[in-house]
């Protein structure tokens, strides 16, 4: 910033007036007795006496008239001089104002630098879990935040609330609802990831000691629940406790209103903190009073012991899928059962149930009859010499089969533009799809069946259905995929599922949208592994043919995991918290999902297999809920 000259006058001078200049050295004029005008001071002029006051006054008036008369020729020059003086004064005023503005800007810049430095320091403190204590006495805007406490009170951030809640660092007696009901925490729940409550699956109890299971939401102010539109989000309908620092929404009554008409009690920590402001940092810095047993599972069981637990749980999950598919095979046949589970596995992005409904509305037999027919099912057992038998021959078919499959599947799904009241222009390929499905005369799912919003373009419903058409068109029959159990490498095992897009789908994600940049493959490596693990290998074991099921189970044990699941990341983080990691493959990743589903989300922390000790194993009969059949694809995988 440029410096401003400091030689400007301290005060702004008054503007010069335009009064004519009076020459005080000019001789005075007087009147003689004969009426002739003479200038006093001339030689021989009579002196004016005190008695002749009238004559003197008259002489002064005459002199004034004379001066006015002779000054007129000089008034223009004097006006110009006065204007110059006025402009100079204005410039001086402007210079002074600019100097004051520059000084103000410099002070503001220094203030911003200080604010940025303080913000960085505060962020560093919060990352350490300590945070800065803000005095309400120094911050009038937050006056009263302490819930009526006197004096300065520390104000918790939401991050600090999370630290207190997760580690159960709050002292006895701090958790009291608006009505004065004490609350006891049995299990604080697991941290939520992504949209939704802060802690999921918590278990609390009141004076009756009856456990209540649900979610917990944390806020600095109780009014934030409405401000964040949680009261309209169905993800928050299972809240059982709303923990806040300042309860500024007491007008809601005794509890926080939830979507669906329910309510959750509110616990405000401000009254307690107002009385114990000095203890705040000690609460946060004190050791954990509790943590999940999986944090020290590797220390107790060893890496091999943890791996054995995860593999045992993974096998349980896999066999549950096998049992489900075995029932489907007996009911509808191997091809239809595998066809249904393939479409369900392709329905990621929140459309797995819809894809299953599509497979049942348009069975495999109907699809092949209207789409060009399918070859007879090859003999099961798959030879080592040709693990892709029944697949390669189908890949040599013309692209017309894939297009016919796409028309029938997209039309039966109700995803064609005419079924969605789309009035915009469409490409010739889309017109062909409409005409082909119209000739088939097949039923369609209702238009509101699919999840069309909040989905990534590559996971859009229409693109997932087109991927199914491309995968199925390359098969003589779905059962041909069972030959992959003879694969000797991972790439060989997933090759039939890594389908590449072509034509229209190279740059489109929907039939009612314009072109956009898209990945070249319908199905990538990670999703191909998911399909293999959750659909094809369980179906191979469900065929009750040892020649197929034995190598299928062996392949399941060797596969790498597709990805790190968001649902189970907290378990993996806990297992690695002591610095020792247990390797995770596909089988163990399925075990993590099984633990998360049957224990972590059911308030069973401390009773799962990772909580046992070598001398006293946990009882598997203590399940909180019948595991049943796990969902095919993790919701946020």
Summary tags:
7-stranded mixed beta sheet; alpha+beta; 637 residues; single chain; 19 helices; two-stranded antiparallel sheet; 41% helix
What would you say this structure looks like, in words?
There is one protein chain. With 637 residues, this protein is of the alpha+beta class. 41% of the residues lie in helices and 7% in strands. It contains 19 helices and 9 strands. It has helices at residues 53-71, 75-127, 158-166, 224-227, 270-275, 280-285, 297-332, 334-345, 352-361, 364-371, 392-395, 399-413, 428-440, 461-473, 490-494, 525-542, 546-558, 569-575, 586-598; strands at residues 29-31, 37-39, 184-187, 190-191, 199-205, 211-221, 239-246, 255-257, 263-268. Strands 3, 4, 5, 6, 7, 8 and 9 form a 7-stranded mixed beta sheet that branches. Strands 1-2 form a two-stranded antiparallel ribbon. A hairpin with a 5-residue loop joins β8 (255-257) and β9 (263-268). The chain is extended, with a radius of gyration of 44 Å. Mean pLDDT is 77; it is low at 1-52, 68-74, 126-153, 373-398 and 617-637.
């Amino acid at each position: 910033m440029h410096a401003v000259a400091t030689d400007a006058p301290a005060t702004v001078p008054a503007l010069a007036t335009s009064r004519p200049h009076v020459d005080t050295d000019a001789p005075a004029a007087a009147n003689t007795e004969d009426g002739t005008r003479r200038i006093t001071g001339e030689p021989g002029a009579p002196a004016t006496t005190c008695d002749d006051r009238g004559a003197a006054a008259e002489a002064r008036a005459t002199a004034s008239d004379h001066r006015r008369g002779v000054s007129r020729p000089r008034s223009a020059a004097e006006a110009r001089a006065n204007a110059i003086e006025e402009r100079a004064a204005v410039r001086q005023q402007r210079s002074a104002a600019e100097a004051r503005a520059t000084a103000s800007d410099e002070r503001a810049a220094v203030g911003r630098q200080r604010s940025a430095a303080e913000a960085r320091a505060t962020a560093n403190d919060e990352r350490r879990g300590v945070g800065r204590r803000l005095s309400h006495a120094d911050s009038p805007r937050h006056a009263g935040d302490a819930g009526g406490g006197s004096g300065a009170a520390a104000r918790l951030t939401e991050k600090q609330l999370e630290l207190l809640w997760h580690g159960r660092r709050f002292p006895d007696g701090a958790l009291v609802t608006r009505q004065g009901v004490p609350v006891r925490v049995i299990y604080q729940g697991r941290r939520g990831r992504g949209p939704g409550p802060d802690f999921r699956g918590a278990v609390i109890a009141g004076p009756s000691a009856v456990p209540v299971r649900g979610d917990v939401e944390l806020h600095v102010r109780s009014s934030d629940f409405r401000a964040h539109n949680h009261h309209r989000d169905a993800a928050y309908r299972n809240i059982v406790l709303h923990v806040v620092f300042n309860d500024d929404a007491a007008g809601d009554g005794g509890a926080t209103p939830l979507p669906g008409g329910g309510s959750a009690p509110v616990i405000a920590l401000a009254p307690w903190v107002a009385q114990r402001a000095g203890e705040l940092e000690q609460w946060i810095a004190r050791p954990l009073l509790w943590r999940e047993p999986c944090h020290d599972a590797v220390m107790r069981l060893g890496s091999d012991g943890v791996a054995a637990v995860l593999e045992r749980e993974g096998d349980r999950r896999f066999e549950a899928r096998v049992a489900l598919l075995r029932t489907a095979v007996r009911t509808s046949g191997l091809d239809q059962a595998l066809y249904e589970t393939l479409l369900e596995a392709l329905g990621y992005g929140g459309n797995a149930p819809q894809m299953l409904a599509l497979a049942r509305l348009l069975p495999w037999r109907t699809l092949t009859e209207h789409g060009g027919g399918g070859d007879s099912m090859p003999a099961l057992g798959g030879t080592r010499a040709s693990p892709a038998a029944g697949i390669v021959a189908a890949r040599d078919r013309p692209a017309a089969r894939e297009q016919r499959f796409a028309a029938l599947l997209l039309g039966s799904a109700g995803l064609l533009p005419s079924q969605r009241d789309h009035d915009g222009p469409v490409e010739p390929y889309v017109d062909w799809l409409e005409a082909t499905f119209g000739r088939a005369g097949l039923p369609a799912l209702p238009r509101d069946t699919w999840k069309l919003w909040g989905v990534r373009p590559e996971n859009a419903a229409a693109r997932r259905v087109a991927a199914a058409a491309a995968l199925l068109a390359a098969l003589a029959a779905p059962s041909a995929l069972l030959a992959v159990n003879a694969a000797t490498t991972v790439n060989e095992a997933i090759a039939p599922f890594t389908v590449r897009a072509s034509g229209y789908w190279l740059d489109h994600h929907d039939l009612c949208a314009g072109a956009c940049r898209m990945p070249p493959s319908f199905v990538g490596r990670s999703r191909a592994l998911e399909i293999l693990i959750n659909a094809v290998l369980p179906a191979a074991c469900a065929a009750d043919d040892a020649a197929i099921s034995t190598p299928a189970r062996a392949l399941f044990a060797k596969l790498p995991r597709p990805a790190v699941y968001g649902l189970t990341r907290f378990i993996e983080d806990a297992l690695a918290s002591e610095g020792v990691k247990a390797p995770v493959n596909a089988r163990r990743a399925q075990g993590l999902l099984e633990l998360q589903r049957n224990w972590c989300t059911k308030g069973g922390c401390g009773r799962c297999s990772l909580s046992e000790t070598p001398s006293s194993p946990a009882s598997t009969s203590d399940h909180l809920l019948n595991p049943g059949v796990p969902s095919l694809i993790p919701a946020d995988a």
